[in-house]
Every structure is written in C-alpha cells, then in structure tokens.
Amino acid sequence: ASSIYILRADGVLELYATEGLNPSAVHLAQLRLGQGLVGSIAASARPLNLSDAQQHPAFTYLPETGEEIYNAFLGVPILRAGRTLGTLVVQNKTNRVYRDDEVEALETVAMVLAEMIATGDLARMARPGVELDLGRPISFAGLPFNDGVGLGHVVLHDPRIVVTNLFAEDVERELERINDAIGSLRLSIDDMLS
Q: Which domains does the chain have, with CATH numbers?
C-alpha cells in the first residue's frame, strides 16, 4: 500500500490519496501532528522503517483504512524548505525492513510531492474549505550539493528560479564564466575587508 497524508493548517494530517488502503478512507482518516506513526514522522521530520508496525508503541489503528493486513511500514516526511508538509507511507504484508535504497527512493518521491504541494498542484485536490499548511513559521535546512560546511543567509527568489539544465553545453564557456565569477567574488571580498 502507498498513502499520502497532508498536513492541514489546523495541524491535522489528512489521508489525501492511497493505493492499497480502503479508498473510502481518503479525506476521512485523520491524525494529529505527533499522533500515530504518521504523526510521529511529521513531527520529527525523520523517516520510520519498521518490520512490524502494529507492535510499535506509537502505532494508532485507524479501522476505516483497512491497514490491519499490513506489517512492514516505511514512512518519510514530505519536506520543503525545512517545513513538514505531510507524510508519505508505503506498507507491505510481509514482515521486512525496507532497504536503504528503497528509503532513498521514497524520500525522492516525497521531494517531488513537496514541490507539487508548494506549487498548488495538490491544493487543487483539497476539499473545499480545507487549507494546506503553508503559512507556519519557516525554518530552513540546507541540502548538501557537495561535502563540506556552508554558512550564509537564505535568499528566497520569487518567482522561484528553476534549474532546467544542470550540465553546460559549452564547457569552455562555462569554465570561463566560473573563473570570471570567482574573480569578481574575490574582488568583492577584498573590497569588504579593506
């Protein structure tokens, strides 16, 4: 089974979509932030990988979902700019722990879902009168592009800048641009220090 729980503005995680759980539970099954496995994942913003979910002390049974047939559980937070927007869950009937590559794949899907939520694609699926939680205070956490430490200020671009081409078509021109930018940066730093 695969399910998406979205965090609403009132702090409730609502089942927004599922494949494998009872479809009539969509928009009816709800958990509070911190309640059950789904709520714990959303509150901690960390994945949870269990071979027998029903034995976990945080497990909360939702009879309307029909989830009692599933044992293995993997849930990852749906995060954007350090904010929890929901939880993505996969469940399996067998008792097993999901592999690291499976966890990573689910986290990647959760990142795509986060963008869909932020751009309003999932908001169009919301019930009338229900608002997704996009207005809470924001805490930013960086994602590493390379190993190391980086300190700085967050600058939000509006409209958001979308990178569509990660590889330069003209490598020599790109190296020239990088060298020019580094030279300009060095001059700016020298000006600030003098």
A: 2-125 (3.30.450.40)
